[in-house]
Design brief:
With 349 residues, the protein is α/β, with parallel strands linked by helices. Helices cover 50% and strands 14% of the residues. The protein contains 16 helices and eleven strands. The strands form three sheets. It has a six-stranded parallel beta sheet, sandwiched between helices. Strands 3-5-4 form a three-stranded antiparallel beta sheet. Strands 6-8 form a two-stranded parallel sheet. The longest helix has 18 residues, at 36-53.
Length: 349
């Protein structure tokens, strides 16, 4: 609408759903007696709970898509703080543009996918993710924070996991909220990997860091990422995957089994696997490739796997909430894989 100001658009904030407040166990159990996606989701929730009951199983959560901007950040924060996740592999947008961004004190706002003029939004420095609005000027502050972190580091190659640890340290001193996955993971020693890290706000901060420090700057080493996650898989042996969306995080995590074999190490296929996706399996895309298909590559066992073809904001609170309220996580021991990987890095130095 003509004459609208930025404040007219950025009014109502997206609120993060809290799984602890909603006991969905009876609902999900009832869905198990239905058909189609309801039954698939119920089985997926039970498989995730089985991962948590399995004392030898380490859980790897993979994330892609605009999840935290959509209100799922608190779900993952609670999973980390409740020892329901031992490692995370994500896109950069979720970790930096959404989680780190909000931890700096900024918000995502309810918007609309219809009836808005995107040219007007651009002029007002408002970015749109479907029906969510973000203040572009605040995102630039987030970019600059990653640049300052990069500037503070010794010039050498880093894995994304190492850099995100530095982000956690930064938030422990300068963060505006405790509801942050990056902060919770740093506190609970849960490593976060972002294989395509430059494809987000951190990328803007890092190119500025390298632009201003030619010849003497920190760099990101994607092969080091892959090696670290493969070492984690070798150390863990039995693993379960909870995959929200697909893309790079999904493939990167599944490939650790093959990578271990190439290195001459023994690492079993992922014992459990759940994937929530809306991608169409018929187009042959990675995001939609089934977990049974992954078995043909030697990545995932087929005994306890489940595809859930549903949108993440609907499915994830039900699957995570079911496992949280079943309380199997209360008997789990923390793996502290961040500490393990730091020791491995020290050996290699």
């Amino acid at each position: 609408m003509p004459g609208m100001k930025k404040s007219d658009y950025l009014k109502d904030t997206v609120k993060h759903i809290e799984i602890a407040k909603h006991n969905v166990v009876p609902l999900v159990d009832a869905m198990g007696d239905m058909a189609f996606s309801a039954r698939d989701l119920a089985r997926a929730a039970k498989i995730y709970d089985a991962m948590l009951q399995d004392r030898n199983c380490s859980v790897i959560l993979t994330l892609s898509g605009s999840l935290f901007s959509a209100g799922l950040k608190k779900v993952v924060t609670d999973l980390v703080r409740s020892n329901m996740v031992d490692a995370i592999v994500s896109t950069g947008a979720i970790i930096v543009d959404q989680d780190f961004f909000e931890a700096l004190g900024f918000k995502h706002y309810k918007g609309s996918a219809h009836g808005v003029d995107d040219n007007e939004l651009r002029q007002l420095h408002i970015d749109r993710i479907y029906d969510t609005f973000i203040d572009e000027d605040e995102l630039r502050v987030c970019d600059d924070a990653t640049r300052r972190i990069a500037d503070s580091l010794e010039p050498r190659p880093y894995s994304s996991r190492e850099f995100i640890e530095e982000m956690g340290k930064y938030l422990s001193k300068r963060g505006k909220t405790k509801d942050s996955v990056v902060l919770a993971a740093w506190e609970k020693r849960v490593p976060i990997f972002v294989p395509a890290f430059s494809d987000c706000s951190a990328g803007f901060g890092m190119i500025e860091h390298q632009w201003k420090n030619p010849g003497k700057h920190m760099t990101l080493d994607s092969a080091k990422d892959f090696l670290e996650l493969t070492k984690l898989k070798i150390e863990a042996r039995d693993t379960g995957l909870l995959m929200i969306g697909g893309g790079v995080p999904k493939n990167f995590t599944q490939d650790t089994v093959v990578a271990a074999d190439i290195l001459g190490e023994e690492a079993p296929m992922h014992k459990y696997a759940v994937q929530v996706t809306v991608a169409d399996v018929r187009d042959g895309a990675l995001s939609s490739s089934t977990l049974k298909e992954a078995c043909s590559w030697g990545k995932v066992e087929t005994a306890q796997e489940q595809m859930v073809f549903a949108e993440a904001t609907l499915a994830m609170p039900l699957i995570a909430g079911y496992a949280w309220h079943k309380k199997s996580w209360k008997k789990r021991k923390p793996r502290n894989y961040s500490d393990f990987l730091n020791k491995e890095a020290a050996k290699a130095a």
